[in-house]
# Entry
Amino acid sequence: MRTSVIAAVCIAAVLPVAACSSGETKAQPSKSSASSPPVASVAGETLLLGKSAETVGAGGGGRLELTPTSVVHATKTKTDKPEHGLFVIVTVKVRPTTDAAAAETAPLQRGGWSWLTPDGQAVGPGDGTAADVFLDGFDSGGPIQAGASKWRTKTFDISTAQRGGTLTYTDGAAHTFRWKIPAEDTGPQTAQLKKLTTG
# Structure
């Protein structure tokens, strides 16, 4: 009898503790979900031309909003000819979204821009003669200070069959962003780009 009383008391003492412990576990939010960066919900999706993506800057520093806005295809520029027959030139507005300066990633950092052709081939900005193309009025690169924005161009040397591909960018946190680029010239900077490439 004495043994049964002692066991009942022990069980009664343990149950509230277990109940409280169970309740506390359910009430606690997931720390990993609370601290996840907002870019994770966008990375991996294929966006349309004109849509923005918030990315992590080079080396994990700052944030950059990237917005591809226009595309032009050119068989030459004033100074250069494509090795593979066609330049695809995309304008991108780049803007820091925090109070810190930020820079785009580069291929040497296992990031940066590339062109994915319709048949799945990756073309880099250094392929062919694309790296030789510089257009007046567009920034060439480097960090951007907080509160400022820059217009830049991304140029790739492709064949005619490779137009209508996907522009990709891998940021400082190894997130990859994609934009579907039309096979036709389009966007608000089209006339400006054509004037710069043909004179």
Summary: The first strand starts at residue 46 and ends at 48. DSSP finds three helices and nine strands in the chain. The mean pLDDT is 83.
